[in-house]
Amino acid sequence: MEEEGETYTMKRYVMILLYRGDQANAFNSEELKEIQDGHMANINRLAEEGKILMAGPMGENEDLRGIFVLDTDSKEEALEWVAGDPAIKVGRLRPEAHIWWTAKGSTMN
Which of 24, 57, 59, 96 is the most exposed, having the fewest neighbouring CB atoms within 10 Å of its CB? Predict the structure, then answer.
């Protein structure tokens, strides 16, 4: 891709949008803490494995709850990687995979 005399090499990633799941309100506070602890441990594991590049919650209390950016170009592989997340397994969150392109080597500053 060229823009104003500069050439960019684009890289394909998968962005997982995490939506409120069907079972989002089915848990007591103790269960929610356990699910959230497991969710964060899963994010950290995926980051240590180099699979997850960015993760974070949304700022509003709406159905879209968070985002993962995964270092793969396969939606199927990305969904496999996140399938073991405790919040997804119990239906608190529902993942939706989307292909996302950005300039290779770009960072958020």
Answer: 59
